[in-house]
Amino acid sequence: MALGEVHLRIENVTKRFGGLVALKDVSFALNKGELLGLIGPNGSGKTTLINVITGIYRPDGGRVLLNGGEITGLKPYKICRMGIGRTYQIPRLFSAMTALDNVVVGAIFGKGRKADLGEMRRKAAELLDFVDFPKLRREELAGKLTLMESKKLELARALATDPEILLADEPLGGLNPVEIDEAVELIRKIRDSGKTVLIIEHVMRAIMKLAERIVVLSHGAKIAEGEPREIANDEKVIEAYLGERIYAPSQ
Amino acid sequence: MPKLGLAVGREGAMKRSLMLIALALTLFLIPPIVEKGYYINLLAIIFMYTALAQSWNIISGYSGYWSFGHYMFFGIGAYAVGILVTKLSFDAYLASVLGGLASFLAAVFLGLILLRIKGPYFAISSLVMAEILKVIAINEEWLTGGGNGLILPPRYALREFYYAILLTLLAVTAIAYAIKRSSMGYALFAIRDDETAAETYGINSTKYKILAFAISAFFAGVAGGCFAWFVTYIDPYSAFDSTLALMMIVSAVFGGIGTVMGPIIGGFVFTLLMEVLWVSFPYVYLIILGASLILVMRFIPDGIVERLVQIVQLMGKVGIKIPARI
Amino acid sequence: MSYKKGVVKTTYIAIIIAIIVIAAIGGMAYMYMKPAPPAKESIKVGISLSLSGGFAAPGQRQLWGLTMWVEEVNERGGIYVAEYGKKLKVSLIYYDDRSDSATATRLYERLITEDKVDILLGPYGSGITLATAPIAEKYKVVMLSQMAAADTIPAKGYDYVFTLLAVASRFGLSRVELLDSLSPKPKTFALLTSNELYPLTVARATKTLWEKAGYTSVFYEEYPKGVTDFSAILLRAKAADPEVFYAVCYPADAFVIMRQMKDIKFAPKLIFLDDGPNDPKFVEVFGKEAEGVFTQMSWHWELPFPGVKEFVEKFKARYNELPRHWSAYPYAAGQFIEKAIEKAGSLDSAKLRAAFLELKDVPTIVGPVTFGDWTNPMGEKLKQINLGAINFGLQIQKGEMRVAIPRKYSSVDIIYPWPGWAS
Amino acid sequence: MIPSADTILQLIVQALLLGSIYVLMAVGLNVIYGVVKAINWAHGAFVMLGAYAAYWLYELYGISPYASAVFSAIALAAIGAFTHELLMKPFFGMRYFRAITLVVTYGLAILLINITRYMWTDVLRGVNLGVPPATIGAISISRPFLYGGLVAIALSILFYLMLKRTQIGRAARAVSESRKHAMLVGINPNVMSRFMVISGAAMAGVTGSLISTIFAVTPEMGSVLGIKAITIVILGGLGSYAGALIGGLMIGFAEASGTYFLGARYQPLLYFLTLLIVLSIKPTGIAGEE
Quick check: C105 and B154 CB within 8 A? Predict the structure, then answer.
């Protein structure tokens, strides 16, 4: 599959919770190898969309297509094994397992799964190094990690499933500026290793620097799509963010 | 907190398995050496409770689905043996294994319904399911003898019971150990910590939960089956006895849930403790049982094994040399 | 949690665990490693009693009856055993089985192999007896069962197990006599029974016998343990309009049944509740309403058998309540054993068994005891049961339980029909 | 057998009355669950203690159980306070909190039942007021049941109003939603949960007084009822008062009609199945959230 081809397509996805419409007819495409940003104010449906893509929620309307094949409503574990990995906004680690074992879980059950536990452990250790997870903390219980460590572990665990597409839900949330720079580098590194990345973010400066293209959600509907510079000047987007000015990358 | 099995080096594992084999052999040699039926009987009952606690551990300790109705599988096993032996004149040992299989199949089927339900809802639903089975046993008189129960051919086979139940205990422990060290162990522990997250990392949670439930049920069924031909009389109220679930939970919690050694140590210590309490204070042992249950949960909620590990580590820090981690 | 705090806590808990383990092992050692007393100085009688758990109340009373017998025998200097040429005192060895069959099997094993008892008494209840009888049989030690009524035990045909208490199917005999002695004779009956081994046997035997005697069953229902509300059942029974209402139930159920019968104004001509009204509390609670209600007991303190009066007085003085069959049968078992050992002149099991079978009409406080075989109404052959055992039908009259059936032991007239609800 | 109209009416009355006693127990459980998020397995044992309190006050001083319900409530409130401080509070925030409290209160139930048994033996006791049933046409209504039902409804409404209308109720709901957030707005969650556990236990005491005139008073009397109440709470949805009401009445009807039409042996089967069917459709009970 060539670079630039459509990797994941969201088609008219609608999701309701009781009377509340969380997603309204959302459509966009994620191209092979690109780093797409998904932004929007709180409650605009970003996480809901990820939950629909990964099969946690079944949409009330619309389809999700992976490489042209429909994956709507499949069980989450099947979607994971088809090559879609994700992280959670608030890390949902297996808190009573060690950091290493958390990654091993991804390796054993993800797309690149193998029966050999020893090999999977080695793979997990490599991934922890890849995300710069401190070596000394590998055998620590996941419930006792710092936020930064947890975020890195989330990424390593998602990568352990060998995803073609990584859906990263606010990987920078709650981090300090130094940590943000570190995390941004990490995400670039992941993209550069050949993965398609969808990143949900709240930290605007970072996303504007990082993403090649941006989709904006507001109240469950897509209000804009385009390059960071266009988005920054889009009136609807500015309005949605209650007038908050979004800065385009200065370079 | 217990770490997953692989953290231990191969050498430690070797030493440990040799020790366990030696222990198992000793247990096998007890009946010929010890003449007194009482001790053999006591040990056999301790093994039974321990095996039940270990089987409970496989589903509840590993995957976090606290089954309050696990005694249903004991009952299914007991009734399967009762029916096979009295109505179809099966051999008791073969019947025990078939009793385990009956429990296994029942668990697969019931698991499809029950394991969709979570937390306290699951705990109570499993209890209710066990009670439903009890009602069925009461009513289907043509099959189960109803309230009259089933009377198996009289034979008093204490030593056979001892060996059968010891084998069950060893097998369930070996399986619990194997599961913990395999990918299934990772799946179950992940489900225990966060089932939704586990699913998104590729774990087919339904499959693993049902498998764990069924394996666990198999051994509870075998234990129930052995018990049936040992006491030679079962009725709905003794075969589906909810205090059995209490014994399983308490033993496992006492030793430490989710660990392999926990239910064993818990089962031994707890059952022995009960025996001593009850011999010494026949009238108040239940009061003490209730109180000790509270105290254990209050002061050692993560079990004795965890504390032992901490003590061993502490000894290491103070400079006392100890062999590889137990 | 700071490191130090954790250490302290862990240490405490380690100490607690260590103490528990040591206490457990030490306790076991102390309990079981005591040196056995030197040879034959006493006759050892062994029993497992339900001192805790579901059967604790009757189990306790069983012990009271036994204790009285043991003390009386020993006051007389014991039992003369020809083999030893002297009187040997009786020592009672008992353990608590927690109302649990598995525990009881362990205890009988212990009584036989460890304590080396000379003779065994049966435990409380049919279920536990069924589980333990094979042990007595295996070791060939005589077991005199006094608290198990299910026919299934003697139907097993054990050589070493004797059943003293009236078997459940014999209960029906006195129930038939009850209906036969009424005038005008009722035509229809309703039967409600708890769905457990012993009540079921009683109920089914009674039903069979009543139907054979020409009475019509208009309602028959079995209810499982744990039913707390009987109103719907009783509504149906009421709709069937029976003249006789008979419930084979446990005391707590009888309370509710009685109350709810009143609530729905169900007033048959005869109410018979197997267990409940025979509990003194029942009369206390229901007062005038209990008047004329029937119940059963396998023994009664008014019976004209020798020794009853003395037993009742002594028992009342000591335990501050009237004795019931729970205490009388164990006491009577003791009386029988005494005679059997004297006759056998030995403590050898085979000789004891022979003596059990040879003795005829041994006088006890539960009447003359003779062991023999009998075929029950369902056609099962029962081995070595007490042919003299009777189950009595009692009626509450002026707030007291009086023997009504069999008529030959009764000193009162039967109140029939039942007067109905007070208001 | 086709029942007459009177019988059917009588059956409905009976089902309602029975259901209302269940509702009373279930509401007591829910009061505790709402704030503490713990199922109190010892609720049945609490009810039993309340019944014993009523029994002794009746036996020794001739106080009617309806009057002594106040004393039972106070006595049980004390036990409730003890339960909260020693058996619930230490576990707040622990993994498996709900499973742990379930096991701990199970232990408490065994403890209480056997202390009772030790002190007062298994002897049956009971309070018989000897009141005749109320009659409407051909239907008769048991007074003990009727009073129990009325108190159940009154207490449920009272608690509902308290939760919705008063300051305490708002605080309780805040704690119920999040202990942390409640703390931020100046509510002490421990005070709230203590209050609710005490209230729930006091309700058990009242229930005990009321049913001392219906059932025989024995140490085991609460066990079956307690499990039934837990079943109802699970069926209705944990923490939901409406659920407890619907669940209690449903079980009351399932039991009464099941017994009447299918026979007593199938009575438990019917309501167990009701529960399983509801849960397999909606795993959090009729009105449960999460």
Answer: no
pTM greater than 0.90: no
What distance in Å separates residue A64's CA from the closest CA in chain B?
16
Q: Among the ranges C58-62, C241-245, D140-144, D193-197, which has the highest mean pLDDT value? A: C241-245
Q: Which residues pair with C45 in a beta bridge?
A: C92, C119
- C294-297 vs A69-70, strand pairing mode: unpaired
Residue A117 to residue B187, Cβ atoms within 8 A = no
With beta carbons less than 8 A apart as the criterion, state whether B111 and D237 touch.
no
User: Tokens for D5?
Assistant: 């109209």
Q: What residues of chain B lie within 8 A of the CB of C20, using their CB?
A: 269, 273
**Where do the domains of chain D lie, and which CATH numbers do they carry?**
5-281 (1.10.3470)
pLDDT at B183 over 60: yes
Report the chain A residue with the minimal C-alpha distance to residue B182. Answer: A117
Interface test with D, best of C259, C275, C322 (most D CBs within 10 A): C259
B190 touches chain A (CB under 8 A): yes
- Give the integer Cα–Cα distance in Å for B291 and C74: 40
Q: Is B156 on the interface with C (CB under 8 A)?
A: yes
Q: Which CATH architecture has domain C170-298+393-409?
A: 3-Layer(aba) Sandwich (3.40)
Q: Do D265 and C259 touch (CB under 8 A)?
A: no
**To which H or E segment does residue A86 belong?**
strand A84-86
C383: pLDDT strictly greater than 80: yes
Q: What is the pLDDT of residue B6?
A: 40
Q: How far is D34 from chain B (nearest CA, A)?
A: 14
Q: What is the pLDDT of residues A67-110, one digit of tens each?
A: 999 999 899 999 999 999 999 988 999 998 999 999 999 999 98
Confidence (pLDDT) at B319: 58
Where in chain C are all domains bearing CATH 3.40.50.2300? 42-167+304-389, 170-298+393-409
What domains sit in chain B, N to C, each tagged with a CATH number?
12-316 (1.10.3470)
Closest CA to D23 of D206, D177, D170: D206
B127: nearest Cα among D106, D32, D219, D83: D106
What is the residue extent of each domain of chain A? Answer: 1-83+165-188+196-251, 95-162
Q: pLDDT digits over C256-269, tens only?
A: 999 899 888 899 99
Find chain D residues with C-beta within 8 A of C233's C-beta.
259-260, 264
Q: Does C286 touch chain D (CB under 8 A)?
A: yes
ipTM value, please give it: 0.86
Pairing of strands C392-397, C294-297: antiparallel
Give whole-number Cα distances, C141 to A194, C48, C121, C136, C332, in Å: 83, 15, 10, 5, 19
**What is d(CA B5, CA B184) in angstroms, rounded to the nearest whole number?**
12
Q: Which of B289-303, C50-64, C213-227 is least confident?
A: B289-303
CB contact under 8 A, B196 and A139: no
What is C42-167+304-389's CATH topology? Rossmann fold (3.40.50)
pLDDT tens sequence across C166-218: 998 888 888 999 999 998 999 999 999 998 888 998 999 999 999 999 999 99
Neighbours of chain B (3+ CB pairs under 8 A): A, C, D
Cβ D275 vs Cβ D235: under 8 Å: yes
Q: Specify the range with the lowest mean pLDDT, choosing from A137-141, C296-300, D282-286.
A: D282-286
Per residue in D10-42, pLDDT (tens digit) is 888 888 888 888 888 998 898 888 888 889 999
CB C202 within 8 A of CB C172: yes
Q: What angle do CA C119, C120, C121 make, to 5 degrees?
A: 130
D touches which chains (3+ CB pairs under 8 A)?
Answer: B, C
CATH no. for A1-83+165-188+196-251: 3.40.50.300
